[in-house]
Amino acid sequence: MEERSMSLFFVADNKVLDDDKLSSNDKVIYYKLVSYMNRHTGSCFPRHATISKAIGLSRSTIYRSVLHLAKLGYVKVKRKSSTNEYYLPKQVILENARKKLIVDNYVSNRSNNVSSLTDINKTKYNYYRNKNNRNYYNRSYSDRGVANHTIKTFVYKGETYKNIGEEGHFMEFSGKDGKRIRKHKFKDIIEVIKPRKKFNAAAENKMLDAAKAS
Question: Cα(121)–Cα(48) distance, rounded to whole angstroms?
Fold first, then answer.
């Protein structure tokens, strides 16, 4: 399902761009993994086909780059039943440092008796000028709906499902019987995930051998 109306962002590490050990494909694939990453767990679960469709690179190229990223410590890969779990330790460190900086600045502003208009949870005003150079204030509030990334369990049609990760704008959940569903972070959309074919180790090894040979 395409999501053309939304545009999310993530914090990027300049050290990745400056690392001459990484190819351009490595960097694109790494940042695509970052875009899928759950900010609370540091992990994501995209399939190679999903990444390939998103960035236009072949699955063999993605496979090689992931191996290279893992070798350099940018990602830790753990095999799951139908996909891989990618843990991004360096991005987690960056995210935690950013959160600490925001909190420290907020606490510092509060301790210095900065006007309540700077409170990140209260009314804020955006200043701008019109064509006649008159001053206006655009009043906005911070209680607008936002994406919920913190759902641990979800009840659907009387069954309880456990959060197993994220892919794009969707959170994925698994039930006791192995049945999987996914829920949109912003919209009221719930989809049942059809079972995937079993992982074929021989075919995967054949693809890796072909990639190495090329």
Answer: 39
Chain length of the chain: 214
pLDDT for res 158: 87
Long-range contacts of residues 167-175, Cβ cutoff 8 Å, at least 24 apart: 167/36, 167/44, 167/45, 167/46, 167/50, 168/3, 168/36, 168/46, 168/50, 169/3, 169/6, 169/8, 172/45
Q: DSSP string covering 6-21, please?
A: --------HHHHH-TT
Please state, as a whole number, how many other Cβ atoms lie within 10 Å of the Cβ of residue 87: 16
DSSP state of 88: -
Domain with CATH 1.10.10.10 in the chain: 10-112
pLDDT of residue 117: 44
CATH number (1.10.3720.10, 1.10.10.10, 2.60.40.10, 3.30.470.20) of 10-112 reads 1.10.10.10
- The CA-CA-CA angle for residues 15, 107, 127, to 5°, reads 80
pLDDT-derived band at 148 (thresholds 50, 70, 90) equals low
Strand positions, DSSP E, 16-158: 43-44, 76-79, 84-87, 124-129, 135-140, 153-156
Q: How far apart are CA 121 and CA 17, in angstroms?
A: 34
Query: Per the confidence metrics, is the pTM higher than 0.85?
Result: no
Average pLDDT value over all residues in the chain: 77
